Automatic annotation (TrEMBL):
Transmembrane segments: 39-58, 70-88, 526-544, 551-567, 579-605, 626-644, 702-723
Membrane topology: Multi-pass membrane protein
Source species of the chain: Devosia enhydra
Name of protein: Glycosyl transferase family group 2
Keyword Transferase: yes
Major location category of this protein: membrane
Pfam families xrefs: Glyco_trans_2_3
Length: 763
């Protein structure tokens, strides 16, 4: 039995204006004081002063020629731009944190919300991953909702039956208690219609019903514990503690409160309405690839678009020579498929988990502000990982959470696709039409790049909608546990910003620069940071190592950034010293970022869209691409050369930056990839071109026969003495004349074989 700690569990504590609990989550093992806006503003001021002074130092340095000065200034400006953007966003997050703490909760009562369809795009997901996502959505405290898994597995893929079984299990598990809850609500309606109301009896009945729901959740938690895997204990444990058992405790507390309260008929009616929709068992699967007239492009955006385009209509299945089509029909005709039109759509990646109050919290905000097209809580990493890669990469994810929260203070938020509540009317406003394989279909979420949510943000801005980040941690998403998987994810994130950037400027124009200057600065940083940051860091690694004397003071301007970043790590449950691990990981990801940037440039040059690569989520490790290994290994070798060259020439000053870079790169290479694993991945990459030769049974048999023939041809060479007239017994027992045979070591039952000498052949 795996052990789960409740240390990271969600805690229901705050009450909204309707008396309903709002989930709050405490991170880390100790509470850290929040950073005040004044402290961040002071750090920004110090950074600006240092940047101006140090850039002036370079510009006025007579030992540097003008061309080199220009290069240095451009690179340092790019690096400082990234640091300042983080600090500005961090200031916005600090301001929002103060405002959020003072503001009353706006959570909506679960039974009062508009309709929501939860869409879970899934492609070859493991059972436990998909099951966790579906359960978190189906157990959420919200009434009018349905869950649809958009299964994109190939028809005969080995993962498809497991995915279908996971969805069916979730539906069956929740259908059983929901049947009893609906019966209880129906009986109440009969009593209410008959004018029968006994406050004490109804209080006892409602409390007992809540307790039965709590008992069901306790049983579900035990089932999930039995099925948990050791490699993912922190993820499975988070679902159990922060979702299932938190809800169990909440409903148990609700029962105690009702038992002690004086009920009236209206209160009883609201509780029964809530109980009748306590869990969602309206869980279904839709597979677009079963229908030939739906888009089949291999990416998440078109998987979502296929279903979004069907909403609000009924269809019949029509079989033809090429396959089955969906044909739209009238409301009065018998239908094979009916897709309701919701007020809102929640998109939830199949590796994400939402906390119970996600929907009630976000719905309370978006319903009162029609200008919000997308509302989300930027996801955080599951806490408690034992993998070095997952823990450090998760730290960067948690820092990005603060960046996204701060961007909303300046109206510069971007849609993050892992989880988002979308206004259906906003999606319709940005809809376009495309044709694929001769069939027309609607496109709501653009698939022009592999970061479809970022591109759609620009479309929403053009229609007058904005993206809002709700200041609360209510969503969590899986972080890759090995460097190979992380590289796939981060390469995808680095690909697309260059393509989208011109769209941002075309929409805003230079006139908007005066009105929305800071917003554009932050939006531009979000899109261009992979290019600007990676290029500046890489080139400055080289230049600082070769011209240390003139550039020694330049990194001082980044000290305020590192201090704030380290404090943010500590208050998020990490250590301040983890900033060194984060820096090492960022250096190791340089080739990954360059690969994504190159893919963007290739798409811009050729017009061909890049291939969408899903992040692997497996217990084992994913092979690291040979380019990443060679690039990182080359940097290690280069920094090592600079270091030893500086030491050998007696230039100790010139060895400072190479030593620092070598320490970070060497640490990162050993900890995040591993030398043995790197050699294995390189060997596998070298063997890859020959894999097609072994793809057929005939080729494999021919190669095996050839190998056997080679071995057979070598046998006469090794048996040569046997055919030159020597004693044949030497073939079995090779006793050297200088080392007599030890008879005792042969044992009592084993004796040397005495074979007759070979006969002479007749002449």
């Amino acid at each position: 039995m795996l052990h789960f700690s409740p240390a990271q569990a969600g805690q229901f504590s705050d009450e909204d204006r309707s008396g309903h609990s709002v989930a709050r989550v405490v991170f880390g093992q100790r509470a850290e004081p929040s950073l005040r806006p004044g402290a961040v503003k002071f750090a920004i001021s110090i950074s600006v002063v240092l940047i101006v002074v140090l850039l002036g130092h370079v510009a006025l340095n007579p030992r540097i020629d003008e061309v080199t000065k220009g290069l240095y200034i451009v690179l340092f400006c790019g690096l400082y731009y990234c640091c300042l953007a983080y600090l500005i966003n961090r200031y916005g997050a600090a301001k929002r944190e103060v405002l959020a703490a003072a503001a009353p909760s706006s959570a909506m009562p679960p039974e009062d919300g508009p309709s929501v369809t939860v869409l879970v795009p899934s492609f070859r997901e493991e059972r436990r991953v998909l099951l966790a996502t579906v359960l978190s959505a189906a157990l959420a405290r919200y009434g009018d909702r349905r869950v649809v898994v958009l299964l994109d597995d190939p028809p005969f893929d080995a993962a498809r039956p497991s995915s279908l079984k996971a969805v069916e299990d979730a539906r069956a598990w929740l259908a059983e208690p929901m049947a009893g809850l609906r019966v209880a609500e129906g009986q109440w309606q009969e009593r209410k219609a008959a004018g029968l109301f006994d406050a004490a009896a109804e209080g006892v009945a409602i409390a007992a019903t809540y307790r039965s729901a709590s008992a069901f959740l306790d049983g579900l938690a035990e089932r999930l514990k039995r099925d948990a895997e050791a490699e993912f204990v922190h993820v499975d444990g988070f679902l159990i503690e922060s979702v299932v058992l938190s809800l169990s405790r909440h409903y148990s507390g609700e029962a105690d409160a009702i038992a002690a309260a004086e009920l009236n008929s209206a209160m009883a009616d609201r509780h029964y309405q809530r109980l009748a929709r306590l869990f969602c068992d309206d869980i279904s699967v839709f597979e677009r690839k079963q229908f030939i007239n739906l888009p089949h492009a291999a990416n998440k955006a078109m998987n979502l678009n296929a279903y979004l385009g069907l909403m609000g209509n009924a269809y019949r299945f029509e079989s033809g020579r090429e396959g089955t089509s969906l044909v739209r029909i009238g409301a009065s005709e018998p239908a094979d498929l009916i897709v309701p039109e919701p007020d809102y759509v929640l998109t939830l990646d199949a590796d994400s988990v939402i906390l119970p109050d996600y929907l009630v919290a976000l719905m309370g905000v978006i319903e009162v502000d029609p200008a919000i097209g997308v509302i989300q809580t930027p996801y955080r990493a599951f806490p408690g990982s034992r993998s070095a890669v997952e823990r450090v990469a998760g730290a960067t994810t948690d820092m990005q959470y603060l960046v996204h929260q701060g961007s909303s203070h300046f109206s510069a938020g971007f849609w993050v696709g892992a989880n988002a509540l979308l206004r259906r009317s906003a999606l319709k406003a940005i809809a376009t039409e495309q044709r694929e394989r001769g069939h027309a279909h609607q496109v709501f979420i653009q698939d022009r790049t592999v970061i479809e949510d970022t591109g759609s943000t620009i479309d929403l801005l053009g229609k007058g909608y904005r993206v809002h980040n709700h200041f609360e941690s209510l969503a969590y998403s899986a972080t890759p546990a090995d460097f190979g998987s992380l590289a796939v994810q981060r390469e995808r994130w680095s690909n697309g910003g260059l393509i989208i950037f011109p769209d941002l400027w075309r929409q805003v124009g230079f006139g908007g620069l005066r009105r929305r200057g800071l917003e554009l600065v932050l939006r531009s940083h979000y899109l261009l940071s992979p290019v600007v940051g990676n290029t500046a860091v890489f080139l400055l690694m080289i230049l600082l190592s070769t011209d240390t004397r003139n550039l020694l003071l330049m990194p001082l301007a980044m000290v305020p950034y590192f201090v704030i970043y380290g404090l943010d790590l500590r208050r998020s449950g990490y250590r301040f010293a983890d900033i060194f691990s984060v820096s090492a990981l960022n250096l190791m990801l340089l080739p990954v970022g360059f690969a994504g940037i190159l893919a963007s440039i290739m798409q811009m040059a050729t017009g061909r869209k890049g291939r969408f690569r899903r992040t692997p989520k497996v217990a084992g490790r994913t092979r690291v691409h040979w380019f990443h290994i060679v690039f990182s290994g080359g940097l290690v070798a280069l920094m090592g050369f600079y270091l030893f060259d500086g030491i050998a020439s007696g230039a100790a000053l010139e060895s400072i930056f190479p030593a620092m870079n070598l320490a970070l790169l060497g640490y990162g290479f050993v900890r995040f990839i591993g030398p043995v694993q790197a050699v294995g991945d390189l060997a596998a990459a070298a063997f890859e071109p020959f894999r097609p030769l072994l793809s057929t049974q005939r080729t494999r048999r021919h190669l095996a026969a050839g190998a056997l023939g080679l071995v057979a041809s070598l046998v006469p060479l090794s048996l040569g003495p046997a055919f030159s007239g020597q004693d044949s017994s030497a073939l079995l027992l090779r006793a050297d004349a200088a080392t007599p045979l030890d008879q005792s070591r042969l044992g009592p039952e084993i004796r040397p074989l005495a074979l007759p000498p070979p006969r002479e052949r007749p002449r």
